[in-house]
Write a structure and sequence with these properties.
The complex is a heterodimer of chains A (293) and B (370). Chain A has helices at 2-8, 14-42, 46-51, 64-72, 83-113, 119-128, 134-148, 154-178, 182-190, 195-203, 208-224, 227-232, 240-250, 257-279. With 293 residues, chain A is mainly alpha-helical. Chain A has 2 domains: 11-72; 83-290, MetI-like (MetI-like fold), CATH 1.10.3720.10. In chain A, helix 4 (64-72) packs across helix 14 (257-279), helix 5 packs across helix 11 and helix 6 packs across helix 8. Chain A starts with a helix and ends in a 14-residue tail after the last helix. Chain B has 370 residues and is α+β, with helices and mostly antiparallel strands. Chain B has 2 domains: 4-233, P-loop containing nucleotide triphosphate hydrolases (Rossmann fold), CATH 3.40.50.300; 240-360, Nucleic acid-binding proteins (OB fold (Dihydrolipoamide Acetyltransferase, E2P), Beta Barrel). Chain B is 23% helix and 35% strand. Chain B contains 8 helices and 20 strands. Chain B has a 6-stranded mixed β-sheet with strand order 6-7-8-3-9-10, sandwiched between helices. In chain B, strands 13-12-11-14-20 form a 5-stranded antiparallel β-sheet. In chain B, helix 2 (92-102) packs parallel to helix 4 and helix 3 (107-121) packs across helix 4. The longest helix of chain B has 18 residues, at 166-183. The chains are: A mainly alpha (293), B alpha+beta (370). The A-B interface holds A 181, 183-184, 186-193, 197, 201-202, 205-206, 286-293 and B 47, 50-52, 71-74, 77-79, 81-89, 98-99, 102-103, 130-134, 136, 139, 146, 163. The complex binds adenosine-5'-triphosphate (ATP) and magnesium ion. Adenosine-5'-triphosphate is lined by residues 13, 18, 36, 38-44, 192 of chain B.
């Protein structure tokens, strides 16, 4: 996959190439600078920040702020640090990502390989859900969660994210499976495999790249979501993003910037990790050799 | 009632009927080839036999059982697809035994069956590879192995050789024929290659625009094509078709054809009933190998006619020389022995084997029986 992409790249001259590199370097500096500031300041004592230069490296290196952000800082009224909320987020994001990805894969499989009347219209309607702004669904969603008796719980939040995520995950898998050779499904049918056996034994093993794409997308979105978290999960059930906000807002007296910075990095760490771990599988071409070639 | 019975079957997509009242009865052990140009409905018919497409009306029976509505896996058929459709995530061995596994065959039996098939197809050394690590011909074998291992009532092949290069295609063709002679299983085989159809089949169904134009042995199809389409589709180079008039001369019906020099040649028919067409226009069909040099003419024929005509183009092809000339205002290809020396522009004495000539009704395009 990557090899063929390189082959197609236009050959460029040395000057153009230098220009491209310089430009890329500047761009990456631009994007890395905020992260750099957060990182260095999270490793300084507070006095160094308030008294001096934000850009400077720490004179005394300390991870005290990290410890505080994780376990002792005042979040809202409780001095719990971000730890419990981190686990809230994990408990929300893992099931929500798994469920929305599995449902998206099943939808894509049905919409491409088990065509039925009006399936394109149904798919169009599902796509529509990708474009509905979050704010519009807040009140109806609150009402439904209330009726189901799961408002304010992590379960409720999972449901919200699954419902919201299905549109995108279906889109991903439908487009991926549209290019998947239907003859494989037919061969499996003749071999006697049923609906779920074909899905599990034939489709899923060849879906690596799109699963990775879908997981990264869903994970990032759900982890970073603030609006649903703030609206549907309150107090001790709040996710990391909401807690981070509370941490920054609720510090009485002096603003502990170093703790805030450390907290913000902690909140961003899981998405970073997902990119680094899962991104490696992006380039794997898993479909090689299924059909003629 | 045959072993595989296709009884008055039609297929429609929405309002469009793509197969019209197909009737074919296949005996056990037969090798039926469905041949026709692209889009004529060959794959559709095959998929209906397999159960991958619904039957709009009519019945399909396999081994005495009507299979309309029976799931593909319960029809006791096996299919080889044009793209081979090997499961990319499984090894060759797993590909071959997947069907058995799905049918609940225990592992030791599966392995035994796999070994037997691998030996038959000489792919033993490939069993642990993934399809992506195989050449086209090897994939083709694996696809056949996957079909063979099921020991089905009927084999279905959908253009299994069309992705191979020319030489491999000929080799695999021979191999499929050998396999059929060894196993004697009923085969339905789809191709648009008329040479494949002629060489492999015990019977051919020529299809065009959703109709079976003719069903018969390769010889019947070749010598007595039912209509103009079959006549020109089967055979390479195609049968020459030229306008002619029927005239009864000395009590015998003749085809009167305009020669290249503007004269008229009288070619006596072998079919006496052509006399009924006296004075009428027909289309005369003569295959290239029935227009030859006098020494190359069929000695067993009782109806060789001499015909002088001018040569337009010569095409030496090694084993034969193809010569283009003009008859009835049409380009006509004739097939001479390779060592006859001919020049473009030369007047040449051809020998026409009228025993092999056929006549078509210009209105209906059907062959005039004789
Ligand atoms: N799902 C479908 N909806 C509508 N028409 C279809 C559908 N599938 C096939 N057809 C039509 O049915 C006809 C027969 O198609 P089929 O695939 O059987 O052709 P074929 O003889 O196998 O051709 P080829 O040699 O190109 O494979 C074609 O005209 C095609 O356009
Ligand atoms: Mg086809």
């Amino acid at each position: 996959m990557s090899a063929s992409a390189q082959n197609q790249a236009v050959q460029t001259g040395r000057i153009t190439r230098t220009f491209i590199y310089v430009f890329l370097l500047v761009a990456s500096l631009f994007y890395l600078l905020p992260f750099f500031i957060m990182l260095v300041n999270s490793l300084k004592p507070l006095s160094e920040i308030t008294g001096g230069n934000m850009m400077a490296l720490p004179q005394t290196w300390t991870i005290e702020a990290w410890g505080a952000a994780w376990s002792t800082a005042q979040v809202g009224v409780e001095p719990t640090g971000l730890r419990p909320y981190f686990w809230n987020s994990i408990k929300m994001v893992v099931p929500a990502v798994v469920i929305s990805t599995v449902l998206g894969a099943l939808n894509g499989y049905v919409l491409t390989k088990w065509r039925f009347r009006y399936d394109t219209i149904l798919f169009g309607l599902m796509l529509f859900s990708c474009f509905i702004p979050f704010q519009i669904v807040l009140i109806p969603m609150a009402r439904i969660l209330g009726m189901l008796g799961i408002s304010g719980t992590t379960t409720g939040l999972i449901l919200v994210h699954v419902v919201y995520g299905i549109g995108f995950s279906t889109l991903y898998f439908r487009n991926y499976y549209a290019a998947f050779p239907t003859e494989l499904v037919r061969a499996a049918q003749i071999d006697g495999a049923g609906f779920f056996q074909i899905f599990r034994r034939i489709m899923l093993p060849s879906s690596g790249p799109i699963i990775v794409v879908c997981v990264i997308w869903q994970f990032t979105n759900i982890w970073n979501d603030f609006l649903f978290g703030a609206s549907f999960a309150s107090g001790s059930g709040a996710p990391m993003t909401v807690a981070l906000n509370n941490l920054v807002q609720s510090s009485t007296g002096v603003k502990e910037y170093n703790v805030h910075f450390a907290g913000a990095i902690l909140a961003a760490l899981p998405t970073l990790l997902v990119y680094i771990v899962a991104g490696r599988f992006f380039v794997r071409g898993l479909m090689a050799g299924s059909v003629k070639g | 009632m045959g072993f595989l019975d296709i009884n008055n079957v039609t297929k429609s997509y929405g309002n469009v009927e793509v197969l019209h009242r197909v009737d074919i009865a296949v005996e056990e052990g037969e090798f039926l080839v469905l041949v026709g140009p692209s889009g004529c409905g060959k794959s559709t018919l095959l998929n209906m036999i397999a159960g991958l497409e619904d039957i709009t009306s009519g019945e399909i029976g396999i081994n005495g059982r009507v299979v309309n509505g029976v799931h593909p896996s319960n029809r006791n058929i096996a299919m080889v697809f044009q793209s081979y459709a090997l499961y990319p995530n499984m090894t060759v061995g797993q590909n071959i035994t997947f069907g058995l596994e799905m049918h609940g065959v225990p592992k030791p039996e599966r392995d035994k069956a796999m070994t037997d098939v691998a030996k038959l197809l000489q792919i033993e050394q490939l069993l642990d590879r993934k399809p992506g690590q195989l050449s086209g011909g090897q994939r083709q074998r694996v696809a056949m192995g996957r079909a063979l291992v099921r020991d089905p009532d009927v084999f279905l092949f959908d253009e299994p050789l069309s992705n191979l290069d020319a030489k491999l295609r000929v080799d695999m063709r021979t191999e499929i024929k050998k396999l059929h002679e060894k196993l004697k299983t009923t085969i339905v085989y789809v191709t648009h290659d008329q040479i494949e159809a002629m060489t492999l089949s015990t019977r051919i169904a020529v299809m065009y625009q959703g109709y079976v134009q003719q069903l018969g042995t390769p010889k019947e199809i070749y010598d007595t094509p039912a209509n103009l389409f079959v006549a020109t589709f089967m055979g390479s180079p195609a049968m020459n078709i030229m306008p002619a008039r029927v005239a009864v001369v000395e009590g015998r019906p003749h085809a009167v054809v305009q020669t290249s020099e503007g004269g008229e040649a009288q070619l006596p028919f072998s079919q006496d009933n052509m006399a009924a067409w006296d004075g009428k226009e027909i289309l005369l069909g003569i295959r290239p190998e029935a227009i030859t040099d006098p020494d190359g003419a069929d000695r067993k024929s009782n109806n060789i006619v001499a015909l002088q005509n001018r040569i337009v183009v010569t095409e030496p092809a090694g084993s034969d020389t193809f010569v283009t000339t003009t008859l009835g205002g049409k380009d006509v290809i004739s097939r001479l022995r390779a060592d006859v020396s001919v020049e473009p522009g030369q007047l040449f004495d051809f020998a026409v084997n009228m025993e092999k000539a056929v006549a078509f009704d210009p209105q209906t395009e059907a062959r005039i029986e004789g």
